[in-house]
Amino acid sequence: MSDVVTDFSKGMQLRSGSRPPRSFAILRVGKIKTKGHLGAALGHNYRERDTPNADQSRMGENLVLKGPGTAQGVMEAWDARAPEKIRKNAVHALEYFVGGSPEKVHAMGRDEQNNYFRRALDWLKDRHGAENVLSAVVHRDETTPHMQVLVIPLDARGKLNARELVGGKDKLRQMQTDFARDVGQPFGLERGQERSRATHQTIQEYYGRASTPVEADFSLPERRRGAVMGLGGESDREWQERASRAATERLAHLTAHLTEASGTLRREMEATEAVLGQTQTELARERAVSEAANKLVLTALQIPQIEGVTEDDKQDLLRDMARFHNRHVSHFSDMQAQATKAALNHTGIAVVELKDGSYALPWRDFDAVGGKRLAGTDRQDADALLNGLRQAERSRQHATEAMQEREARKTRERERGQDSGSDWG
């Protein structure tokens, strides 16, 4: 029996056997390509914007190890270090994720965790220059404690040059080796398997599920005719009942498909975040993000083919897709961003440019909020506008349901009164 157990719920492969699980040092690096995306990343790191996967009751346990305590302060520090002329395609910042195998990190005491993160921060300062490390925040309000570090990638000439610092597979592999040796080993953490493809394979298999479009077919069944001169055929009522049952069954089938599509998308969001939290190289991270972007496009292209379901069900799925886009678009390449934008527009989702980057929302919500109100806002403001809109929708729905219930109650009372009167007629 193989010692490899595939667990799609975590988007990774787990090994079982007689020996205890190994504990790995995790270091990954991502490229931030615009100032808008840098602001979004800082808003997340400092919890100045909504962070759904963070426990608000534990946000006070987060720890700033380097830099100002606000996103605006770090942006000002970036402006002070950045060169006057910046290439259009220049990487504006590098974001490092420092963590470890969850079981090992949770087993550490608070002091040992802090020592590990401080040692990692010193290692990054030596690598990039202390003055270029702009921010370091330890997050303890998510599933596993980790640290996120933002660096301005300046070369010896003072130019933005991420390629020289972290470009190429060989540099990334050597960085993993050096980090595990210099930072991880003193804390019992080792390097992950080099050149491993396990995560890529399981993610491919996972994303292969529920990818076949379903076409709507609500043609009514033929009416059964009698064998002799039409005698013995279905009555109008019998045919109507059978046609109604057939349509109901097809509607149930399509509703189930839409529900599965929505559930698949939610599972993909969770799996994507798990993969982004566990991959140990930029190459693997970009591959996982690419697969997520591709799956988002495929899912978007399926939605217009589904008919016969309620508009509210469709809107719920469109909102899920928009939230998924907004959470991960900062990691998409320009080509991926353009492809997802085109697919989402085809589906019924608008993608607009706000102060801190691209933002997706269903066209129905866009029309309700109004383009003028969105202009000049950032993502946090847009989220607040949409939350207010949806709260108003729920209030109107509750009011409508209450009014309908009152009308139904009055109708029942009138019918009871008429029945009572007829008894004495």
Automatic annotation (TrEMBL):
Region: Disordered; residue ranges are: 1-20, 385-425
Gene label? mobA
Task: Alphabetically list the UniProt keywords.
Answer: Plasmid
- Keyword Transmembrane helix recorded: no
Q: What is this protein called?
A: Relaxase
InterPro entries assigned to the protein according to its UniProt record, in alphabetical order: Mob_Pre
A Gene Ontology BP annotation from the UniProt entry: DNA recombination
Biased composition range(s): Basic and acidic residues: 391-418
Q: Looking at the Swiss-Prot or TrEMBL record, what is one Pfam family this protein matches?
A: Mob_Pre
Molecular function in Gene Ontology: DNA binding
Fetch the Gene3D superfamilies from UniProt. Answer: 3.30.930.30
Cited NCBIfam families: MobV
